[in-house]
Amino acid sequence: MADGVEQIYIALISVHGLIRADNLELGRDADTGGQTLYVLELAQALSELPNVCQVDLVTRRVIDSHVDAEYAEPIEKVNDKFRIVRIEAGPDEYIYKEHLWDHLDGFADNLADFFRQQDHVPDLIHSHYADAGLVGSHVANLLGIPLVHTGHSLGRVKRRRLLASGLTTEQIESLYNMTRRIEAEEITLATAERVITSTHQEIEEQYEIYDHYQPDQMRVIPPGTNIKQFKPPEGNELESELFKKLTHQLTDPHKPIILALSRPDKRKNITVLIEAYGESERLQQLANLVIIAGNRDDIDDLEAGAQEVFHELFVAIDRYDLYGKVVMPKHHKREQVPLMYRIAAASGGVFVNPALTEPFGLTLIEAAASGVPIVATEDGGPRDIIGNCHNGILIDPLESSTITDALLKLLTDNDVWDDYSSKGLEGVAKCYSWQAHAKRYIDLVTPLAQRAELLQRKPLERTSHVYAEQAIFTDLDLNLIGDDVSLHKLINLIRENRKTTKFAIATGRRLDVALRMMKKHQIPEPDILITSSGTEIYYAPKLTPDTSWAQHIDYHWTPHKVRLLLDGYPGLEKQPKSEQSRFKLSYYIDPEQVDVEDIKRLLHQEEQSVHVQLAFGQYLDILPIRASKGMALRYVADHWQIPLEHIFVAGGSGADEDMMRGNTLAAVVANRHNEELSQLIDTDRIYFADKPFAAGILESLEHYQFFDHVKTKKASS
Q1: pLDDT tens-digit profile of 584-604?
Q2: Which of 556, 557, 562, 668 has the fewest Cβ atoms within 10 Å of its own Cβ atom?
Q3: Are the C-beta atoms of 365 and 396 separated by less than 8 Å?
Q4: Where do the H-state alpha helices sit in 606-685?
């Protein structure tokens, strides 16, 4: 584009999915989800700007009797400045994105030919998702056009979720071509002038682990919200049929509504919201609680994680006797959601998102656009949203009292409620509407299109492997925690090596308690978090639970029989409910009254297939026979293809012993419970550190020269 020309021509590329201007088939399959709507609405918003002369949304042409004939039209003119361009690539029929990789080179060649046949080529290419990134990189390099990229999801992160679902590395490669996808993302990052993300957290937790990541390349522009669909109350919401349906079980349906809307997922932390409400008589007097937690017919038909969440929710409702004050409708439709927000706003209510982790928080923007003040987790995207809109209160999702205080502030002060409601409407229009998004976007890309602001790349080092080559596993108590100065040094060392080394925490504590301790000591979220003594495994960046592990350890596990055998056993006392979980029964043990070996003998005589472990001389855990920290470590190592010889383990109590035995590089940090591991002192590959806590971990890493072999590999490659 010649200097001085104000209008620019932008080509957006979204290779897969079925894209047309009207009647998007959202949810038809995994390829017709939010990305197709995002790209279409972005293109429409850009075409409305005066400094844009042309927008092409480029996708794949599909000629298939099983889909609408519109997808076979080479060009669909949407308005005078916006058209959908369909390029031939591969077979005529519709195929999923995982099967497109062999056809992307042909797509790129055909697209370059299409541009050459026009009067002028685009001033800018913007690719969406990894496959479009590869196409965009080829075309941008061939025609000398700047490339902008939006990943939507990243291969390295998706691989973690797939492993958590139970797929093996071989299955992931076969089904998803993951190595090709990750390499395509690296090529895209090596080519793109700018990469647009939704939040700063997305950059820190996802893009930074890529070799070709460049800090100056990244820009945060949140996606837009359709403010024609999500809007403030019109005045008749409390007379609607939906309001009657939502509130018919409530004793006083005309109180303000505290609204929560999420999947029945443990990470969404809905139980804490019920606990906050149940523990506050004042909140119960002021408002009703409406929880929209997906659709269900029979809870027993749901997957195990959702069943567990609903069990916790109903137990909490019953414990606090909240009948007539809390409702959880069984069914709702997607198109009813905007009205739900307006009903909450019209009632003078509040929208709450208490999730443990929230990378973006689209529901918060939808609520704000509907005039509802928000209370949200201080993790991730909500910080940006409330920082921009000033329409709500951030809470600690691990402390129910912070939820209670925030709700009381909003529900007892009409001036505050009105102020947050109006600021939310203003903030969404300014920062989160598609019009606002398009304006920020065009300000960002215009200098690129004019070749006035190109990226100055910094030198980088490529790793020698697609995935991490080694890992550090450590317990929390008396290992990481205890010396904050050394802990800070250790965290910095791990960050410096994060591209080659996975960081994992294995603790006997429950997920919520572990997260609370990590937050208190400013320990970043690990790549792998093993909790409840090895019975639960979670992966960053969204604390994705490993459902395959749960299925694996649920083998001959009959906790009700174990309870019957141990209830009233002399010298044993049940730990609080907060320390119990689906696969862990926890007791305090008095070693003066009972020997752990006697407990093992009793359970085995009664044919209970269990793993019994003692920690810190007083905490006894009964687990499924397949579960322990060591078994969880080996399961993760196998799934992530990290040799045990490349895994460093730091432990400090008897509960860590089976992590340390075998082929790992192990270290016992100095503490008063070393006697529980004293039998390991003559074992090969186990180092007893002189220093305690994180200082002992640093000492042990130096002893093993743990990071040196990776540096040697880099130098020789």
Answers
A1: 999 999 988 989 999 999 998
A2: 556
A3: no
A4: 629-640, 657-660
